[in-house]
Specification:
Elements lengths: L13 H24 L5 H12 L8 H7 L5 H22 L2 H37 L9 H13 L3 H10 L6 H29 L3 H34 L6 H21 L3 H11 L4 H29 L9 H30 L3 H11 L3 H13 L5 H16 L1 H8 L10 E3 L4 E5 L20 E5 L5
Parallel strand pairs: 2-3
Antiparallel strand pairs: 1-2
Helix pairs in contact: 1-2, 1-12, 2-12, 4-11, 4-12, 5-6, 5-8, 5-13, 6-8, 7-8, 8-9, 8-14, 9-10, 10-11, 13-14, 13-16, 14-17, 15-16
């Protein structure tokens, strides 16, 4: 027992210390998540705040805590286990992408998506010219300029697809018009953002010709995954359906082997393993019960156990003390203003033009598209791991991501939800179905509908875990 609190440089009992830290983090995450749920905030904010609490900004100022409970030498274990959670989460995100929904809304969504990519991207690229010198202070190794510009531009263009879906689902908006439009836009945004981030990672590992070769190899890899590997997985899936053995363990093992191999290849290529996991999820079969049963199983262990460690590690590396004067505070405010306006304004005006809906509807689209949260935090952590971001700039961007996510729900209620009358049932006349959007755990505002009141229709229960 005493060995747990021994000199952290010796690390004779790192496993026991890690389990103790894991327990502490999960308790703080759950407590913070409960408090934040009272004001309808996503749990990811609680996870990052938990990391900030145990890190150098709060409890890290206590000598015993920083030396024996959460010594900096133990943070790497959180990063390692958290990266496993990140890979599984990105795989799940690929599984979750509904290509049919994107196809149905692409005409309206594409214009909004392009505007909410180009304007933030250009704003981020311009801002990166100024931030590069700030990033290089404090003796930080200067990253490749092209990689830095691409990374800042990419980080400005993200919309947090999973957090957005959770917010829409918890307010029974997931199947409404605003839900389908914003989900489609966010999916397009994130796909383009991850591709851009992968290119930034390639240039960070090797500038000039090396970076170009990495990009070309990555394009070849994507083509290979979307043709040969996807064809093989689809054939195997269809064969097992004919045998009524869709959940065959061989298929499950095959999918996970593809996931691991794809993540490994991208990592050694210098892009980052998250991109390989994301592509592996996209190419997996979406029909039948395989995807429907695989998704919640992975989501449960990833979202509830592993991913909190990833974001807690983010909080540990967030040192609010680095923003210790008005100059850096002003830069943080500038980043927040540019990031918010560059995302909200193009989404707001393009939504009004292409949907012909009310100003409230357009305002809600702009607010929802400004949700960064989970995806932005992942991107920022990758930038820190690739040594593109200094700890000070990382903290500034983390603050921007937290604030933009935190203000989404209150602003959405103020602008749109307080006058919105949700439809209990959403009918699709083309295939004679009724979709009942619910979340689990059940939210108080959800209505229980007697099934015997519904006739001559197929009933789809559309559920999503609220996190």
């Amino acid at each position: 027992m005493v060995e747990i609190f021994a000199d952290p440089s010796i690390d004779v009992n790192y496993w026991a210390r890690f389990l103790m830290q894991f327990f502490i983090i999960l308790v703080i995450v759950r407590v913070m998540g409960w408090f934040l749920s009272l004001i309808k905030q996503p749990s990811v904010i609680g996870e990052i705040i938990a990391g900030i609490i145990v890190g150098p900004s709060v409890l890290g100022n206590i000598n015993f805590w920083s030396k024996h409970i959460f010594p900096p030498s133990s943070w790497n274990y959180f990063t390692l286990v958290g990266n496993v959670g990140l890979i599984l989460f990105m795989f799940n995100l690929g599984l979750e992408l509904d290509k049919d929904k994107i196809k149905n809304e692409w005409k309206r969504s594409l214009s909004i998506a392009i505007a909410t990519i180009i304007i933030p991207y250009a704003s981020g690229a311009a801002l990166s010219i100024y931030l590069y010198d700030i990033n290089s202070r404090d003796g930080f190794i200067e990253p490749d300029r092209a990689a830095f510009m691409l990374f800042i531009a990419s980080s400005m263009s993200f919309t947090a697809f999973p957090v957005l879906a959770s917010i829409l689902s918890s307010n029974n908006l997931i199947q409404s018009r605003i839900g389908t439009v914003t989900i489609s836009c966010a999916a397009i945004n994130d796909i383009m953002g991850w591709c851009s981030l992968a290119i930034a990672g390639a240039f960070a590992k090797g500038s000039g010709l090396v970076g170009l070769w990495v990009v070309l190899i990555a394009i070849g890899y994507i083509i290979f995954m979307f043709t040969i590997v996807k064809w093989l997985l689809t054939r195997a899936h269809d064969f097992l359906i004919e045998r009524d053995d869709e959940m065959n363990s061989l298929l499950l093992i095959g999918v996970f082997l593809v996931l691991i191999a794809s993540a490994f290849f991208c990592d050694i290529l210098g892009i980052h393993s998250f991109f390989g996991a994301f592509i592996a999820g996209i190419i997996c079969p979406k029909s039948g019960k395989f995807n429907a049963e695989l998704f919640p199983k992975i989501e449960l262990i990833t979202v509830e156990l592993l991913l909190p460690l990833f974001f807690a590690a983010s909080g540990m590396r967030t040192s609010l003390g680095t923003i210790n004067d008005t100059f850096y505070g002003g830069i943080t405010v500038l980043i927040f203003i540019i990031a918010t306006l560059a995302k909200f304004l193009p989404a707001f005006f393009m939504a009004k033009i292409v949907t012909k809906e009310s100003w409230k509807f357009s305002g809600a689209v702009g607010i929802l598209m400004n949700t960064r949260g989970l995806v932005e935090l992942i991107a920022l952590n990758i930038g820190l791991q690739l040594h593109i971001l200094s700890p000070r700039l990382f903290t500034m961007l983390i603050i921007m991501a937290i604030v933009t996510t935190f203000m989404t729900c209150p602003l959405l209620w103020l602008v749109y939800l307080r006058t919105y009358k949700p439809d209990t049932l959403i009918t699709n006349a083309r295939n004679n179905t009724i979709n009942i959007p619910i979340t689990y755990p059940l939210q108080p505002q959800q209505t229980i509908i007697p099934i015997n009141n519904i006739s001559n229709n197929h009933v789809n229960i559309i559920g999503r875990h609220h996190y």
